[in-house]
């Protein structure tokens, strides 16, 4: 039985994503940016970990956009989230697409108690900036990974440029995201996330920036990690 009594979740954040759940697979909805960056996220993961035949858990999977993509590459994917409405949408879409993902409504900390060291690959994308205790999520992701396994994160850095682009620009000027999507105080600098990862027994292998060009309306990966960024970490063999 899990000893996790209080899930690491913000009720307001959960309600916000639950309200939008029916729009997860609409590529022109509030989730349009996730659809557009998904090939970049998938490519970044595959640069480090071959997904075919791997056991993968997607933490904070939402409606299953990344989960389905990894399953389509031949991975056995478990998607976990605390928004049941989002998971219902994910399950329905899986039935329509024919892509199999095991979706579970469970906190990552509770899953880590239940299935420690069970996964070759752990992904946690665009979630850390929405939870009260990101270090707890990072530690749980590490516990879920097998020794020698891979853990991938993506989130937003905390600095004036990130505030201008990810909040003012994306939410108020360009309208890429609904207003109030992000709380600037919860953004994580790469150095802060790297420290959390090291404390959890993870080695930082690669840090990549993900930027949006408003003129071409295209996202790309590069070395500029001042706003959105991805992090590839390797679980220490001795853990």
How would you summarize what this structure contains?
This protein has a single domain (11-235), classed as 3-Layer(aba) Sandwich (Rossmann fold), CATH 3.40.50.150. It has 8 helices and 8 strands, in the order ααβαβαβαβαβααβββ. The protein has helices at residues 11-19, 32-48, 65-72, 84-97, 108-114, 134-144, 160-173, 190-199, and strands at residues 55-59, 76-81, 102-105, 119-125, 145-156, 202-213, 218-222, 228-235.
Unreliable sequence segments: none
Structural class, by secondary structure, is alpha/beta
Strand order of the largest sheet: 3-2-1-4-5-8-6-7
- Mass-distribution shape: globular
Q: What's the CATH class, please? A: Alpha Beta
* Amount of helix: 25-40%
CATH architecture annotation name? 3-Layer(aba) Sandwich
In round numbers, the mean pLDDT is 89
Q: Strand-and-helix sequence, N→C?
A: HHEHEHEHEHEHHEEE
Relevant CATH superfamily: Vaccinia Virus protein VP39
User: How many strands appear in the DSSP assignment?
Assistant: 8
Largest sheet: 8 strands, mixed
CATH topology: Rossmann fold
How many domains would you count in the coordinates?
A: 1
Our estimate of the beta-strand percent is 15-25%
Number of helices: 8
Catalytic activity: a 3-demethylubiquinol + S-adenosyl-L-methionine = a ubiquinol + S-adenosyl-L-homocysteine + H(+); a 3-(all-trans-polyprenyl)benzene-1,2-diol + S-adenosyl-L-methionine = a 2-methoxy-6-(all-trans-polyprenyl)phenol + S-adenosyl-L-homocysteine + H(+)
GO biological process, one term: methylation
Protein name: Ubiquinone biosynthesis O-methyltransferase
Pathway: Cofactor biosynthesis; ubiquinone biosynthesis
